[in-house]
Design brief:
Number of helices: 17
Distance between the termini: 73 Å
Number of domains: 3
Largest sheet: 14 strands, mixed
Helix content: 25-40%
Structural class: alpha/beta
CATH topology of the largest domain: Rossmann fold
Length: 579
């Protein structure tokens, strides 16, 4: 049982995001909070370990005691390397509770990137499975700042249940009274178009996210969620939802068995789920082949990349009583906008509609600039319908990257003077100054797009992946939409060959076609599609691959810059400019 929530003299309520779990434990103690799969029953049903909100709160209390005993306290950065499900939720909420700062790094980004993230974040403590502890010993120099280590079982099931049940509430550390602008966590980006960056989240930002997600999607307490991105499970105690842990390896999400996900949805009456377009396309294909629908689902949130037209269309059959939504945002700010199946224009070849900005979020389109922008001038803002760089402002917009002042300067546009920042000399103090000064900060999404006459935002592609030719600029999404119409093209990627400003556009197609005669036919048919539109008529070179390099987190973001480098030496197929 959690200890009473301390009251803030200024606001009457602490901003510590962990307070929501204690409130749920008090108001709905016997409601299921978490279900972790641990095998199959003799009848073939999924066997779950179930924890109520009271039991989960007790787990967090036990974790809090253990962390404090290990010497971890307020403001201590703690690298979290545990399994999804109970270990992740319980340990992170315990860190929030004692005022420590969890540092969460994507497990599949590769060892080199991972070590770079650890080196930059300078964690004082490590909370990890045996493999994580071994890595910290092997790479001793990178983990030198670590002073406290807490070992965690590699099992997905509870290991503290018997201990936590015996801990009196008086022995558990009290919930730290955190201010809304106090650092709550450091969450790393996936690094799909550059080096991964640590995003600094404040408690007030998490609170704003919960508020906007609940209001935008009309989520009600008592719903059942199956989150296919583990970190999204952390929102559920605040939203009052039961978390069903999916049978997915977060290091290799695309290798999952869709039948297991469908069984979990049907067996547990899941009402809500989050996953990438790649994962939901795989689930949708399985359901279509087996003539299955998912009537309990009220909503599916699909993000991480543009949702393909076929998934929008198929969702109407797949979700007879629900709706597919695509929230737009980033690790640095989520949600920004949202679009549902009822609003989508599936035949568009001029970008992907991502909907209207959610309440409290302001969106502008500015002229594309590759360098820093010290101040937002009215002259930079583009009129409706014109493609430019997307910038956003609002309560969920983070203000700094951890220990990366150059990246912060590139991604943020302050609305007020940054003179105080210039006076700070070292990296970390500059980060603090930025956090203090940029109360009206605009975040540059790194995406290109436009606002239409109805105030809807359209995504056209990543800024760094645009192709700048001698005659103009091509953006990935509008061009790829044209060629994705071909039934043999699983995925497409626009790339640029050559130097910026004089690049030659080309298209890489993910397909199983290998026969030379079929390749020639496919090239001709793709070219015939391209000449129908002004923005694709000059694409005459095509490459083919059986598998695209994509991000691990969503298995949906195509590494187009990697493909462009590969194409420098790969065999391409040329078509005459006139057909």
């Amino acid at each position: 049982m959690s200890s009473p929530t301390p009251q803030s003299p200024a606001t009457g309520v602490t901003a510590n995001i962990a307070r929501h779990l204690g409130l749920m434990a008090q108001s709905h103690p016997e409601r299921a909070a978490l279900k972790i799969p641990r095998g199959r029953t003799p009848a073939g049903q999924i066997d779950y370990l179930t924890l109520t909100f009271r039991e989960l709160d007790a787990e967090v209390a036990a974790w809090s005691v253990r962390l404090r005993q290990a010497g971890i306290g307020r403001n201590d950065r703690t690298l979290v390397m545990v399994k999804q499900g109970l270990p992740l939720i319980a340990s992170v909420f315990a860190l929030f509770r004692i005022g420590a700062v969890p540092v969460v790094i994507d497990p599949g980004m590769g060892l080199k990137n991972f070590l770079s993230c650890v080196r930059r974040s300078q964690p004082r403590a490590l909370l990890g499975i045996p493999l994580a502890q071994l890595i910290s010993r092997v790479f001793r120099g990178t983990f030198r700042p670590v002073r406290s280590r807490v070992s965690v079982s590699s099992s997905l099931t509870a290991r503290l249940s018997t201990v936590s049940a015996s801990i009196p509430a008086t022995e558990a550390p009290a919930l730290v009274n955190s201010a809304s602008d106090e650092l709550a966590a450091i969450l790393f980006t996936s690094g799909s178009t550059g080096a991964p960056k640590g995003v600094c989240y404040e408690h007030g930002m998490f609170e704003a996210q919960v508020r906007l997600i609940r209001a935008t999607y009309q989520i009600e307490p008592g719903e059942i969620d199956l989150p296919m991105l583990p970190i999204f499970a952390l929102f559920n105690p605040a939203l009052g939802m039961t978390t069903i842990v999916p049978e997915i390896d977060p290091r290799r999400p695309a290798s999952f068995d869709p039948a297991k996900i469908v069984q979990a949805i049907q067996q547990e009456g899941v009402t809500n789920s989050f996953g990438s377009p790649t994962l939901w396309t795989k689930i949708g294909d399985h359901c279509a082949a087996q003539h299955i629908t998912l009537p309990t689902l009220r909503r599916v949130l699909c993000a991480g990349a543009a949702v393909p037209a076929t998934l929008w269309q198929n969702s109407r059959t797949l979700l007879p009583h629900g709706r597919l939504h695509s929230p737009y945002g980033a690790t640095e700010c989520l949600p920004v906008a949202s679009v549902s199946v009822d609003e989508i224009e599936r035949q568009s070849v001029y970008g992907a509609c991502v909907g209207r900005p959610v309440a409290g979020i302001e969106v502008k389109i500015i002229a594309i600039v590759d360098g820093p922008i010290p101040r937002l001038n009215a002259e930079r803002v583009l009129p409706g319908g014109e493609v430019g760089e997307i910038i956003v402002r609002g309560p969920v917009v983070t203000t700094i990257y951890d220990a990366m002042p150059e990246a912060t300067a590139l991604a943020k546009i302050p609305d007020i003077s940054t003179a105080a920042v210039a006076e700070r000399q070292d990296d970390r103090s500059r980060d603090v100054a930025n956090s203090e000064a940029n109360t009206g900060v605009w975040h540059r999404m790194g995406d290109c797009g436009y606002l239409d006459a109805n105030g809807r935002l359209w995504f056209c592609g990543r800024k760094v992946e645009r192709v700048v030719t001698a005659t103009g600029t091509l953006h990935t999404e509008p061009c790829e939409q044209v060629f994705r119409q071909h039934p043999r093209a699983r995925r497409c990627a626009l790339i640029g060959i050559g130097e910026g400003g004089r690049q030659r556009p080309a298209l890489v197609v993910e397909t199983g076609v290998r026969n030379s005669a079929e390749v020639r036919t496919l090239v001709r048919e793709l070219r015939e599609l391209g000449i129908q539109y002004p923005h694709t008529k000059d694409i005459t070179r095509f490459y083919f691959r059986s598998v695209f390099p994509v991000d691990v987190r969503h298995n949906a973001k195509i590494h187009r810059l990697t493909l462009a480098h590969w194409a420098l030496t790969a065999p391409g197929h040329e078509v005459e400019s006139e057909v």
